Amino acid sequence: MTTRSSGSVFAALAQEQADLALRSLAQRRNRHGAIHATRKAIRRLRSLLALCRHSLEPEVSVVDRKLKRLASGLSRLRNAHVVVVTASRLARGDDRDIWLDVASRLEARRDALLADALSRDPDFARRRAQLGAIAAAVAALPWQRLTNKCLRHGMKRSARRAAKAARTERRKPGPVNRHRWRRRLRRLRMQKQMIQAAGRAAPSLMRYGHASVGALGELSDRLGRIQDLHMLRSSLTSLDKSLPLAQLRRHVRAKANLGAL
Prior knowledge:
Blueprint lengths: L2 H24 L4 H26 L2 H31 L6 H25 L4 H15 L8 H24 L3 H24 L14 H23 L9 H14 L3
């Protein structure tokens, strides 16, 4: 395999994610789902760029910073939707009605945040223009410099970072270290998926990493559910004090300690 073929394969994968982010943000129906899809595409693109970073510096760092800034600007809207979904999932058994009430109040707050964001950036036109410029910058990256050695280096680095985050979380358990571990696991999983998507273009890379894609996905999803519960617990403080907030917070904390919904 030649360097050029490696570059062209990963350039196409990167462009695919950039275009997906742009299309998702342009959707007018189900805005909350569209924001989620946009952020996922950005995460996959950033994971791919990190995998290729060794060959694409310094240009790639400029693109990555812009992607990170754009995704961060959507995080409040995404988090507001996550707590609605999480509260709705807790609406069962004897506590069903109260959690439906909580979900309804959080939904009103979520929709107000979205309306405010759209009033400041109608149809997300400014953000879409930024994504368009980023997509052009991704296409202009020096993909011809990409080598299999760089890709192997990127996979090894991600595996080491995920393992280090796991050790840190075991030594000092807590939301911050757990969230860092989750993010690094998620990046490693996405990178392995990108390697698989490359198909025959990078067969020697399939063995890199410390776990299968499936195992990585299951673990990062479980950590994600815990993170969602922590966000919901924090969001309860903003609700009407007539609700039994202390009881609700204890309930959410118990669920988070179990590690699943």
